[in-house]
Amino acid sequence: MISPDYVKLMARYNAWQNVSLYREAAKLTDAQRREDKGAFFKSIHATLNHLVWGDHMWMSRFAGIPRGNVGTLPSGLDAFPDFNDLAVERIRLDGIISTWAASVTEVDLAGELTWMSGALHREVSKPRWITVAHMFNHQTHHRGQVHAMLTSFGAKPDMTDLAFMPDA
Q1: Chain-centre distance for alpha carbon 44
Q2: Are 105 and 112 in contact (CB under 8 A)?
Q3: pLDDT in tens, 33-61
Q4: Number of domains, the chain
Q5: How many C-beta atoms surround the C-beta of residue 10 within 10 A?
Q6: What is the C-alpha separation between 42 and 9, in angstroms, rounded?
Q7: Does 14 score more than 90 pLDDT?
Q8: Which of 63, 76, 102, 168 has the fewest CB atoms found within 10 Å of its own CB?
Q9: Which segment of 11-25, 72-86, 141-155 scores lowest on mean pLDDT?
Q10: Is 64 inside any structural domain?
């Protein structure tokens, strides 16, 4: 089982890594960010949109935030067609995640979470702590894809090692 300290740590890691990726992605042209690089969601832009979509879905379940204008999984890949709007939403959403993480207790991680899964097209129930761990794992997985796509353009995002995350 994970702890509230783990949730706080991963929220900090998420925000730190997003600052790095968005800083480097901003140096590319829109065409480069949208170029099919062979990743699961093809491009940097679509993958960053997917991360925002996923975080909206999970935070709506964990913290009751509105899902906003992110749509379904397919339409969520371009919910924010303008990169600057996407970057602003990422910062806003990271603030929501950090605020939520700061208040998570052991009780919040206990029990089951039940939701309607669009991916499975049915209701799903899982232990809450697993779904929280999944959200952070999902972020790390897709950010790794973005990191690789950015480096293919010569960008230099920060290192991704959790052990070397700055303390502040």
Answers
A1: 13
A2: no
A3: 999 999 999 999 999 999 999 999 999 99
A4: 1
A5: 21
A6: 29
A7: yes
A8: 168
A9: 72-86
A10: yes
